[in-house]
Amino acid sequence: MKKKFISTMTVMSMLFVAVLSGCGKSDAGAKAGSAGELYVYNWGEYIDESIIDEFQKETGIKVVYDMFETNEDMYSVIEAGGVVYDAVCPSDYMIEKMIKNDMLAEIDFNNVPNVKNIDSKYMEMSKAFDPENKYSVPYTWGTVGILYNTSMVKDDITSWGDLWNTKYQGNILMQDSVRDAFMVGEKLLGYSINTTDKSELEKVKDKLIEQKPLVQAYVVDQVRDKMIGGEAAIGVIYSGEMLYVQNEVKKAGGDFELKYVIPKEGTNVWIDSWVIPKNAKNKENAEKWIDFLNRPEIAKKNFEYITYPTPNKAAYDLLDKDLQNNTALFPTDDMLKNSEVYKYIGDEGDNLYNELWKEVKGN
Amino acid sequence: MNKDFRKVLAFPYIIWMAGFTIIPLSLIFIYGLTDKSGSFTFANVLAIFAGEHFKALILSISLSVVSTVICLIMAFPLALTLKSKKLDKGSLIVFIFILPMWMNFLLRTLAWLSLLEKNGIINTILHFLHLPGLNIINTPAAIILGMVYNYLPFMVLPIYNVLEKIDDNTINAARDLGANTMQTFTKVIMPLSIPGIVSGVTMVFVPALTTFVISNILGGSKVLLIGNVIEQEFTKGSNWNLGSGLSLIMMIFILISMAFIAKYDKDGEGISV
């Protein structure tokens, strides 16, 4: 869901190679391995890799680091059990699904003292999928919003409805993922993003079909490159990508700016959290890992690299004023009042969404 | 070499075939013919007739047929030219022709994306020359282009292969007996190259029919082919049963193609590239 420029195929082939060779990437530190191993499974390009080295050097734990592209991919790997991971970083609704299917171990928070650095606001938000805060520690969070090119879009963008504006025909990028695409239509029509009501979803489907002729492409990671390259005027993107694309445009000396807005109808607020699968072999090392990542200076360093908003209050306090006050990145509560966290909608719900999504795509 | 020793030599291949062909294939059959609770059903296979799936299948078939025809029209003259060249010159052209195939299929398709994009290389050049832009990216036309580009060598090589085996004396004999160029072509060269054409058509049609990468990259995920449906069932919908059931339908097309090859290319001339 939230990761940077790695296409499905690349990750799949990397995964294949990783499985074949039986090992992931691991830069062994001086005494790596002396304190056991740790199998980490995270989104592609979702960490400052020097942090892995630091962790290895300090703890002597050898880290085997693998990456996935979607929550669904991650789930099938964990479910199949071919590789056993100790620390995994799924999103909200997927964590809920894993809890329901009894796949997660309770975290021993005595081993994760730095959890105190997490803003209680996000622990509260996490209760939507982890009701007792027993299984997960937030790693990043953010919103889904609209990114637009100020030289191609002259109006102020405020609403999801702007993605239906015929002015931008052929210049609109939508997310190629079921829930994110439907979320846009659901919010526009005033439904919950977790609805499984068939008649509501049918209406959302019709809305998306109506939009399809205007859409340039349904993409996942390519939103970034296409917006940076000025290929499209307006697109749906994760807030964590904003700083990256804006910097790239600046670097390239583009004659336009990319602006990010959270539409007034509200959006999806997502949280990616660290969890420990039930079958983990190195649970204590996983807890050490999670604790390490929550040190203020480590969390800050990581944020500066991946640019996905950190829920770590101590790290946030270390940031520059500009960043702290960047409401596109760290929105105020008021901006989020209509927003929701994704919930696991059950197999039947998933099937319904998938069927309707196929109809949108096939139309 | 005695027979027992031969059996030992065949052993690695048998393990390979069992592990990577027979077992996976059986798994697809098992998944395809059961539902999530594991009981037997034809529903996953019959799902091909459901609205969106059938539409995707028809679209896939039409795009693959068009691509195959274009490939054939482009490949035959090329193969004829190659045959008429002296041996080493001809093989140099073949070499240059298959050179891009050494590059990753995915990269080649991504390259077409940067070529065809709105601000892509082709359009930049066209604009520079004050010519109208080319807007085929994210349409079926771009997918056909991707298919033709990627699969053309699979058409050229089998045809070239059979043409090369036609003895020049056969052609000379036809000319001696009074056939003109056209007659030589239709009565001698064409019939003799049927095995290559059939192999070529199959080798282009089948992968084009099942592709999902080309339609994802060059179609902007806006065009839903049957390959995309199956891929989505496996990776996103996590409905392996439906995905397998639909794959079985694809297998029927592959079997039909193999039957054609068996009928027209008895000696395996075309596929012995």
From TrEMBL, chain A:
**Residues in the signal sequence:** 1-22
Kindly give the PROSITE patterns that the UniProt entry links to this protein: PROKAR_LIPOPROTEIN
InterPro entries referenced in this protein's UniProt entry, alphabetically: SBP (IPR006059), Sperm_putr-bd (IPR001188)
Name its cellular compartments: Periplasm
One Gene Ontology biological process = polyamine transport
A Gene Ontology molecular function term for this protein is:
polyamine binding
Primary location group: periplasm
**Does this entry carry the keyword DNA damage?**
no
Q: Which residues bind spermidine?
A: E45, Y93
| Highest taxon in the source lineage | Bacteria
Keyword list (alphabetical) reads: Periplasm, Signal, Transport
State the name under which the record lists this protein: ABC transporter, solute-binding protein
Question: What is the organism field in this record?
Answer: Lachnoanaerobaculum saburreum DSM 3986
UniProtKB/TrEMBL annotation, chain B:
- The principal location of this protein is membrane
Record's subcellular location: Cell membrane
Name this polypeptide is given: ABC transporter, permease protein
Looking up PROSITE patterns in the UniProt record yields: ABC_TM1
Residue span(s) of domain ABC transmembrane type-1:
57-261
Query: Which keywords annotate this record?
Result: Cell membrane, Membrane, Transmembrane, Transmembrane helix, Transport
What is the native source organism of this protein? Lachnoanaerobaculum saburreum DSM 3986
Q: Which family does it belong to?
A: Belongs to the binding-protein-dependent transport system permease family. CysTW subfamily.
Gene Ontology annotations of biological process type? transmembrane transport
Please provide, in alphabetical order, the Gene Ontology terms of the cellular component aspect for this entry.
plasma membrane
Record InterPro entries = MetI-like (IPR000515), MetI-like_sf (IPR035906)
What is its membrane topology? Multi-pass membrane protein
Transmembrane segments in this chain: where?
12-34, 54-80, 92-116, 136-163, 184-206, 242-262
Entries under Gene3D superfamilies matching the protein = MetI-like (1.10.3720.10)
- The protein's superkingdom reads Bacteria
